[in-house]
Amino acid sequence: MKSRVSKFLSCIMSIALIGGTLIACSDAKQNEGVMPSSEGNLLDGGITNATGFPITKEPITLTVGIANGAHMGDVTQYNLWKKIEEKTNIKINLKVYSDAEKANLMFSSRDYPDIGLRMDASDQAMSDAIDAGDIVGIDNLLQYTPSWKKFFDTNPELKKQALMPDGKLYGFPYAVLNETSYNLRDQWFINKKWLDELGLQIPTTTDEFKNVLMAFKNNAGKGSIPKNVIPYYILYGNNIGGQFDIYGAFGVYTPGSYFIVEDGKYKSQATNPDLKEPIKYLADLYKNGLIVPEAFTDDWGRYTAAISSIPPLVGSMTSFGDQGQNVSDGKWWTPIAPLKSPNGKNPLIRRQTKSIWPRNYVIFKNNKYPVASARLAELLADPEWSLTENFGSEGVWWKNSSDGKYELLSPTTEVADADKALGNYGIALLDEDMFNNKIVNDNFKKEGTREWAYENIYKKYLPEKNLNYPPMPSGLLSDEEKQRMTDLSKSLNDYIKTTIANWISGKGDIDAEWDAYVKKLKDLGLDEYMQLNQKQLDAASKLGHE
Amino acid sequence: MITINRVKQNIGLYFLVLPALIYVIMFDYVPLYGVLIAFENFKPIKGIWGSDWVGLYHFARFVHLDVFWVLIKNTLSLSLYSLIAGFPIPIILALALNSVTSKKFKKVVQTVTYAPHFISTVILVGMLNVFLSPRLGVVSQLLNSIGLTKGPLMTLTNPDAFSHLYVWSGIWQGMGWGSIIYLAALSGVDPSLHEAAKVDGATKFQQAWYIDLPSIMPTIVTLLILSCGNILGVGFEKAFLMQNSLNLSTSEVISTYVYKSGLLQSQFSFSAAVGLFNSVINLVLLLTVNKLAKKLGQNGIF
To answer: Which UniProt keywords apply (chain A) (predicted)?
Structure first.
């Protein structure tokens, strides 16, 4: 601890030393370039055309900051940058931030590029920079970006996610609204091959599920079931692959934490007595050895190893991706519907929040060509450009099909870095209309894919209302309130997590201890925590209505 | 005048000490003003001088946390346990090695005991997790096969087992390395004392007890004082890596809490305040033990 903190401190100090000297040099002339100049329709001091291509009448260079994703290869080799230069006269000079610390350091030292794509700096760094006026507000620039203006006008809920506490917009978003992706958290898989070997049916109720798991356990070492089989794998307490879908089977919706938002009201599921029943069910599975103790000690690495092991070790688990595609013969895993419980309530599956990455393209105030930069953002919102940004090069990852639609391709050979996609490291505009009507994706017809499972299994089990906590900008609460919320959140969530873990692992009796548990949560400040969250929620819902 | 002359006479020595002096000033004293951020709501953009002053707010916040006493209890018990169990062992090892007559055996034991020191904490905890894995770990399999336990081994998830695992794995890793300094001190013991003792018919044990131990006492006291000065500084990595949702009630120590709720949430001021709080308490403890040592007739560190 001593060395960590002192390292951090010395780091901060050096940052602050540099940062402090630079503050004096900043001035507030940030809107200078936006105003039309005297030279007719040329902007940015006579360089930028208001319409048409190329964007600038003579070549310019813009420095663009981007975080480095491990899967992305050499991002400087992407064809996209060349395409941009040919079309717009803007040469992109990429500055890659290899980790979040480098990006945070850049923010603290105010050594900004001209444009920032996703940089993975902390929310706090971004909002501090906005407070300091270092990032250009885009409201004045929307006149040059009709596609983005239309997007914000027609999607008020998504616009709200992008607004900062002052009610203004400060960046162009990555807006890829694929329902099959955002509207379902985990698929629930069962090992079909083992079911077939044992002559069992796909379970539909919690009791059948338990019997199937018992059968997996009792037949360990026979057929393709390994001796050290894990009948039901959960990564306890984790949003992905955790135990939350069991709660859903009993009709208790928990999005990956124990707090939900219903009709604008912040609610706690941690104190909902309906939670007792699924926890008892989990405890029963644990007692019978169907959930293994590793559920509480494994980390993310061992979760992925366990669920993707070939041949499989696991009888049932939940995961975002299509495990069927990862196992050679494709017949191991099959997605199942959430189980029906004895209490008769409708089982629920979890969804993710429909959201955008609101500031994946920000223009810094040292950028001399804000209009040209905005017009570049507009070009990147074009459907075909967006497909390239999000999926990869045309002809490799997608192609124009005859009826004016776009067909997604799955390349079978290794793809060169040049043809790779920025994905959510850049921006793109692909809305639901694109996905529903213009993009042709074969996976919808392929049994066992996520798209297929979403359409055919999970869609009808989603809760009617969205109960997830909506994304919101930081800075809606005062610093003191935010810090108090952090402290409360830590102690409450740790207590909930530990107590429920004890109940599941048989170290306590939920019926006897429930009241004490609820009381302890109140003592720890549950009410205050809920009030603070409600306050933040109310402040967020008021954004954009002034 | 006299001092200047003496400096002139020894100018070479002053040159020798200069780089170290500059280093200490540059990297240990100049950045000290950064502790100011513990008393403000630090924002990197506003800088250390520009951020809002909040006084002792972050200290009060830390002390009023619901988990504050749990954190103190866990941290203190872990480090006291480490100290009490871990401090004498390298001394005993060094005394034992010193009494061994076979040079070869001594070298082998020394190498074997300090080899674990070079294993990184991540690997050490990884090994613990693999060996003690509830169902498939070596220990669990072994105990089950000879019938000592039945079913999975729950050591990793048992909050009561956490401190033992933490301390004894630390002793295993550190005892060989820790004994080096005592061995060095022992090599300075006058051989004539041992010869005299032998003539008087002292056994090996008596020699170690009456000659070796008193000779290295000053070293022992110095090291004890230094370790007391570090008593709230329980290592971050190991506790953090060994945590899981079931043992959190004993494994959450000050440093892991600060990491999770301070640094990960960009709350640098809070983290700095807790760090400063730790340092002050450590300093007080160090001074107390130092004074105590002097009272008991031993040399303090200053």
So the answer is: Signal
Give tens-digit pLDDT for B122-146.
999 999 988 988 888 888 889 888 8
Note the pLDDT tens digit of each residue in A319-345: 887 765 545 555 688 899 999 999 999
Dist CA A72 CA A78 (whole Å): 10
Which residue type occupies A366? N
Alpha-carbon distances of A544 from A136, A171, A262, rounded to whole Å: 18, 16, 21
The model's pLDDT over A225-283, given as tens digits with 9 standing for 90+, comes to: 998 899 999 999 998 899 999 999 999 999 989 999 998 899 999 999 999 999 999 99
CATH superfamily of A185-350+477-546: Periplasmic binding protein-like II (3.40.190.10)
Chain B partners of A104 at a C-beta cutoff of 8 Å?
44
CB pairs under 8 A between A and B: 143
How many Å lie between the alpha carbon of A497 and the closest alpha carbon of chain B?
7
CATH classification code of A44-181+354-459:
3.40.190.10
**What's this model's pTM, rounded to 2 decimal places?**
0.80
Residues from chain B that touch A490, judged by Cβ atoms under 8 A, are 67, 257, 260-261
- Distance (Å, rounded) from C-alpha A467 to C-alpha A474? 20
Exposure b/e, B41-57, CB count within 10 A at least 16 = b: bbbbbbbbeebeebeeb
pLDDT value of position A326: 47
pLDDT < 70 positions in chain A:
1-41, 323-331, 544-546
Residue for token pair 């009030």: A531
- Quote the percentage of chain A above a pLDDT of 70: 90
Average pLDDT in chain B: 88
Domains A44-181+354-459 and A185-350+477-546 share a fold: yes
Q: Across residues B175-204, what is the average pLDDT?
A: 90
Sign of CA dihedral A368, A371, A376, A380: positive
DSSP letter at A478? -
Q: Provide the token pair at B272.
A: 């700095």
Quick one: pLDDT at residue A17?
44
Q: What is the structure's pLDDT at A353? A: 86
Q: Does B218 touch chain A (CB under 8 A)?
A: no
Chain B CB within 8 Å of residue A528 CB? no
d(CA B251, CA B240): 8
Spell out a b/e string for A40-75, using b for 16 or more CB atoms within 10 Å of the CB, else e.
eebbbeebbbeeeebbbeeebebbbbbbbeeebbeb
Please say if the pLDDT value at position B286 is more than 80.
yes
Q: What angle do CA A69, A73, A74 make, to 5 degrees?
A: 105
Q: Which helix (H) or strand (E) holds A376?
A: helix A370-380
B163 touches chain A (CB under 8 A): no
Say if residues B44 and B227 touch (Cβ distance below 8 Å): no
Tally of CB atoms within 10 A around A391? 23
**Domains of chain A by residue range:** 44-181+354-459, 185-350+477-546
Query: Chain B within 8 Å of A201 (Cβ-Cβ)?
Result: no
Take residue A304 and report the two structure tokens written for it. Answer: 């992925």
Selecting from B27, B151, B236 the residue whose C-beta is nearest the C-beta of A4 gives B236
Output the pLDDT for position A327.
53
The reported pLDDT for the residue numbered A324 is 54
Which one-letter DSSP state was computed for residue B27? Answer: I
